[in-house]
Amino acid sequence: MSDATLHATDQNPDDFAVQIADQVESFLVAVTEVAKGDEPESAVPFLLLEVSQLLLAGGRLGAHEDIVPDERYEPDTGPDADVDELRENLARLLDPIDVYSEVFDPYEPRKAPVPARISDDLTDVITDLRHGMAHYRAGRTTEALWWWQFSYFSNWGSTASATLRALQSVLAHVRLNQPLAELDGLDTDQGMGDDTLEFEAGRVMAEEIAGPLGLDPAK
C-alpha cells in the first residue's frame, strides 16, 4: 500500500485502523524531522507533543478488545530499517538531557531505577511502529493492528510512557526554573551493578525532588 493509498480520500476517517495508522505515521514523520536538528530549541516540547499524541493511539489500542490476526503465523515484512543514524542524531540533539532514570515496572517489588536514554527509547518505539506500518501498507490491516496492540503492551507503550515522563520533567524544570541535578556519570553505557544503579538513580531523584521542596537530601 503506497503513501497515497494510506491517505486515500475514499477511506472512512472514522475507521479505527485508519485513525491509528495516521497517528502512527504522524509520529514517525515528526520524530524523523526533529532528529534533523533544524530547530533544536523546540525539540523537547515538540517531542513531548508527539509522544503524547502517540500514547493516545496506544491507549485506544490498549482499551480495544484483543485483536486476532488473520493468519496463524506473522507474514514476513523483510528486515527492519536501520535506525542507528536516527538514534545518533537524537542523542546529539538531546545531549545533555538524553540520559534519565526510570523504574521499569512500578508493580514489581523492590525494583531499582535504571538508566535509560530518550534517544534509545524513541528509536525503539519507531522500530516497533514501522514494523506494523509495513503490514498496513501491504494491505494487512488486521495484522498491523494486532502488531501495534501486542507491541504496545510488550514494549513501546511502556517505553513511550517513560519517555513522556522524562520529556515532561525536563520542561517542568525549565518552566518552573528548577535546575536539573547533574547525573554524575549515570549512563546506560556503563556496566554498573544493581546496587550502584540503585544508589546513583536514587540519589539523583532525591536531589531533584528535595531541592525544590526545601528539604535536605539524605547524605
Give me some keywords for this one.
disordered N terminus; DUF5063_sf; mainly alpha; DUF5063 domain-containing protein; DUF5063; Four Helix Bundle (Hemerythrin (Met), subunit A)
The parts where pLDDT drops under 50 for at least 5 residues are: 1-9, 191-219
User: What is the molecular shape?
Assistant: globular
Classified in CATH, the superfamily is Protein of unknown function DUF5063
CATH topology: Four Helix Bundle (Hemerythrin (Met), subunit A)
Could you say what the CATH architecture is?
Answer: Up-down Bundle
Mean pLDDT: 81
The helix fraction, in percent, is: 55-70%
Number of domains: 1
Secondary-structure element string: HHHHEEHHH
The biggest beta sheet is recorded as: 2 strands, antiparallel
Protein name: DUF5063 domain-containing protein
InterPro entries: DUF5063, DUF5063_sf
Q: In a nutshell, what does this entry contain?
A:
Pfam families: DUF5063 (PF16702). The protein is mainly alpha-helical.
Description:
By secondary structure, the protein is mostly helical. It has a single domain (3-68, 77-100, 117-188), classed as Protein of unknown function DUF5063 (Four Helix Bundle (Hemerythrin (Met), subunit A)), CATH 1.20.120. The protein has seven helices and two strands. The protein has helices spanning 3-6, 16-35, 43-63, 84-94, 118-137, 141-175, 194-213; strands at 99-102, 114-117. Strands 1-2 form a two-stranded antiparallel ribbon. Helix 2 crosses helix 5 (118-137) and helix 4 (84-94) packs antiparallel against helix 5 (118-137). The radius of gyration is 19 Å and the shape is globular. Residues 1-9 and 191-219 have low confidence and may be disordered.
